[in-house]
């Protein structure tokens, strides 16, 4: 796992470690790591034009010491100081190494000479704000951040791209858009969660020895080895591998039923039981003959319906189900069982008015997007998008459920556990029906015996990986990048076997 700690924990660990080290040692470790990454980014350090954007705190100090190291290797280093003060030791080190220091930038008026060096630099180190940054960037930092983001040189953010809130990934206003972020001691949640994550480029972690002093992480992101879907054993039969029951679709909404069932069929379930009214059942039978289907006559109550369907090990309720009395009765019946239940889409709309149904012991997994979560919590969608970590945690705690918040950087939260941030995925996943595939897939993993947190996080991982596999073609000659194509929800289902194989 990649571990991320919020600012308070980083500072506490730093304090404990600094007490055992000579003064300035930690900053030298950070600066050495930063300079080493910068040197790797340049074709030649000797003669390269390097600009340091230097804020008033230790983040600026790191940039100055790293700049001094590059200057000693022959780079032409220019510091652009911003803010009311500048790190003294760092400034002296840069000057001693032959670096140039421009006049301090005040207000919005960045001098033409400062703007010109930023524009033409081979590499820009962003040392405006790190973990000490609070709120939206003030001037002149905001203008400098925009100039850096627009420049043609490589932008390397020191610890955190300035303008990104290190603990949450919030960005109020502008932020530096880096090609590489060199972060010290531990990842910060804001480097893994959008909108902050989108500002980071590639994140490089520099070990400065904080490890032994760091407590449990606040946020974690899986490596492939951390994702371990249930493996069938030689003695497994279809019942022991887990039967997932899907209650989805209606006369008007049939696609969700077919896609959700497809996610479960390719998600490793031993058997998929699908139940709905006649039309979606016909379509599911046609597309997924593997599924065992049940037609629910209109008006059949929830408990009776579950009896007709037969035994399952986990339920998925909601995609395309509608939000009326029948949908509510089915949702209530499944939540009254002692089985794991995943609630998605229309099921979440019903839950928004029936939160009482969530008083249960068995695992409950909710898979909202920002709008659905906003409806359940009674806040605007935009606010959820802007503060994803805060809202997913709040939902998990208030609803006593595992909550998977879909979107760019999908998050999975459970009370008192580190939040899982999904590292896979592609913006091409933002297309109709992919959420239905995800809920079927997670349902299969739940039925296979995974906990709510593991099933949701592993499902998100596999789903995002399948989307990448589906959208990416061969590497384009001369670019080093794979070609890409738009994908459909069906393509994601089709790529699930390869995503599973990539983990084994
Ligand atoms: N912890 C560790 O383990 C280690 C930490 N290290 C390094 O120290 C960094 C933390 O340094 P830090 O505490 O001095 O804070 P920092 O990020 O420089 O920001 C403070 C400055 O920013 C300013 N400022 C704030 N908000 C602003 C805004 N919205 N808009 C504009 N300005 C704003 C604020 O201004 P003020 O509020 O004082 O006017 C002040 O001048 C950390 O990220 C890492 O790089 C490593 O060297 C060693 C290991
Ligand atoms: K920075």
TrEMBL record:
State where (6S)-NADPHX binds. 58-62, 130-136, 159, 256, 320, 369, 436
Q: Which Pfam families match?
A: Carb_kinase (PF01256), YjeF_N (PF03853)
Domain of life the protein comes from: Bacteria
The alphabetized UniProt keywords are: ATP-binding, Isomerase, Lyase, Metal-binding, Multifunctional enzyme, NAD, NADP, Nucleotide-binding, Potassium
Required cofactor(s) = Mg(2+); K(+)
Q: Which residue numbers delimit the YjeF C-terminal domain?
A: 221-503
Q: Where is the YjeF N-terminal domain?
A: 10-216
| InterPro entries with a match to the protein in the record | Carbohydrate_kinase_pred_CS (IPR017953), CARKD (IPR000631), Nnr (IPR030677), Ribokinase-like (IPR029056), YjeF_N_dom (IPR004443), YjeF_N_dom_sf (IPR036652)
Where K(+) binds, per the record, is at 59, 126, 162
**Catalyses which reaction(s):** (6R)-NADHX = (6S)-NADHX; (6R)-NADPHX = (6S)-NADPHX; (6S)-NADPHX + ADP = AMP + phosphate + NADPH + H(+); (6S)-NADHX + ADP = AMP + phosphate + NADH + H(+)
Q: Which family does it belong to?
A: In the N-terminal section; belongs to the NnrE/AIBP family.
PANTHER family with a match to the protein in the record? ATP-DEPENDENT (S)-NAD(P)H-HYDRATE DEHYDRATASE, ATP-DEPENDENT (S)-NAD(P)H-HYDRATE DEHYDRATASE FAMILY MEMBER
Q: What is this protein called?
A: Bifunctional NAD(P)H-hydrate repair enzyme
- Per the UniProt record, the source organism is Actinomadura miaoliensis
List the gene name: nnrE
